[in-house]
Write a structure and sequence with these properties.
Length: about 325
C-alpha cells in the first residue's frame, strides 16, 4: 500500500516532473499542490498543514533554535538565488556605495525572509554594514497591507531599530517618494514602471554576484524541503524516497534545458547562458545533498545568529536534517 503524501511546492522546471507524474516517488501516492512560497510558508509555519513542503530556510532555522521540532529537513533546495540584484535605492538618497547604507531607512516586507538574511549577510561580510547600522521598516511591499502580520513572531535584539509602516502605505510607494532610502528584496512596482527615482544599488549585479561566488563558493539557498516529523517517525524511508524523486526531477529539467532544437525555455541565447553559468559555477551548480552544501548552510546559520534571528546558535547544521541524509551524498548514479 502506498503512503499518501501531500507536498506543497512551487512549480519550477526542477519540480515539474513531480507535478505531472513523470517522476514517481517510490512507495508514495503524491498529491502535489503547486503553491506560491509566501502562502506555503505562512500556512506551514503556523499550522503545519502539509505532509511535506517547500519551506523558508531562515524560518526553519528560527523554529529549530526555539526547540520547535515539528519538521525534519531533506537536503533538497528548490529555490536558490543571488541577491545583490535585489537591493533597491532611491536615486536621490545619496547612496552610492553599499557602505552608504549606514544610518539609512530600509524597507523589507519581513525581517525573517531568507533573501533579506543573505543580503544583510553580504552587506556585513563584504561592506561592514551591520544589521544594527540600518533603520528597518516592515509592512506591505508593493501594496498596502492593513493587516500586516509576520509569518512567525520574532523579538529583535534591542540594538536593532525597527518599526511597522502604516497599514495604508507600502514600501514601494515610500521608496519612490524618498521616505525610505532603500528596500529589499522584491522587485518594486515603481522600478517596473520605469521610475527614475528607484534604481539598483548594484547595477552590474551579475559581475558582482559572480565575484561573490568565486570568493565564497556560495550559491545562496533560499528554500529547503521539510517533512512533518510525525510522518517521518512512522515512515523513515520517506526521506530517501522524496530525495531521489527530487533529484530525478532536477535531472529531467536539466536534460530538457540542454536538449535542442527546439529551445525548452523562451530565451534566445539559452545555450550560451547555460554554458556561461557552468564556466563560473561548474556543471552541478544547483546541487542537492547535505555535504555538498554544508558551507552554504553553515554560513546562513551564522548570519542568522549574528542578525538576532535565532534564540541560540545552531551547533551543527546536521540537526536540521534527517539522519538518513547525513552520510555523504544521496544522489543517484549518473
Amino acid at each position: 500500500m502506498r503512503l499518501p503524501v501531500t507536498l506543497a511546492c512551487g512549480l519550477y522546471d526542477r519540480t515539474f516532473g513531480l507535478r505531472d507524474g513523470t517522476i514517481p516517488v517510490e512507495g508514495v501516492d503524491l498529491n502535489f499542490l503547486p503553491m506560491m512560497p509566501v502562502e506555503t510558508f505562512r500556512r506551514q509555519a503556523r499550522h503545519a498543514e502539509f505532509d511535506a513542503s517547500e519551506f523558508s530556510l531562515s524560518t526553519f532555522m528560527i523554529l529549530h533554535s526555539r526547540g520547535d521540532r515539528r519538521f525534519v529537513g531533506i537536503p533538497v533546495f528548490p529555490s536558490r538565488r543571488y541577491r545583490h540584484e535585489h537591493v533597491w535605492i532611491n536615486a536621490r538618497s545619496g547612496i552610492r556605495t553599499p557602505e552608504d547604507l549606514k544610518g539609512k531607512r530600509v524597507g523589507v516586507q519581513e525581517f525573517v525572509q531568507t533573501a533579506a538574511l543573505w543580503i544583510r549577510g553580504f552587506l556585513q561580510q563584504d561592506y561592514g554594514v551591520r544589521t544594527e547600522d540600518v533603520e528597518w521598516y516592515f509592512g506591505g511591499y508593493n501594496a498596502p497591507d492593513p493587516y500586516f502580520k509576520p509569518r512567525i513572531e520574532l523579538e529583535l535584539p534591542a540594538k536593532v531599530r525597527a518599526q511597522v509602516i502604516p497599514g495604508d502605505r507600502c514600501i514601494d510607494e515610500m521608496l519612490a517618494a524618498g521616505e525610505l532610502d532603500a528596500a529589499l528584496p522584491a522587485l518594486p512596482k515603481s522600478f517596473q514602471a520605469g521610475s527614475p527615482d528607484v534604481v539598483r544599488l548594484f547595477p552590474n549585479f551579475r559581475e558582482v554576484e559572480e565575484d561573490y561566488f568565486r570568493r565564497t563558493r556560495i550559491f545562496p539557498i533560499m528554500h529547503v524541503v521539510v517533512v512533518r516529523r510525525e510522518i517521518y517517525e512512522k515512515n523513515r524511508w520517506i526521506i530517501q524516497a522524496l530525495y531521489k524523486a527530487f533529484v530525478e526531477a532536477k535531472r529531467l529539467a536539466m536534460r530538457r534545458l540542454m536538449t535542442y532544437p527546439p529551445l525548452h525555455a523562451s530565451l534566445p541565447w539559452l545555450t550560451d547562458e547555460i554554458e556561461r553559468t557552468m564556466r563560473v559555477m561548474g556543471t552541478d551548480y544547483w546541487s542537492y545533498g547535505l555535504e555538498e552544501n554544508r558551507h552554504v548552510l553553515e554560513t546562513a546559520a551564522r548570519h542568522a545568529w549574528e542578525q538576532g534571528l535565532l534564540d541560540k546558535p545552531i551547533d551543527s547544521i546536521d540537526e536540521l536534517f534527517a539522519p538518513e541524509s547525513h552520510a555523504g551524498t544521496l544522489d543517484l548514479p549518473t
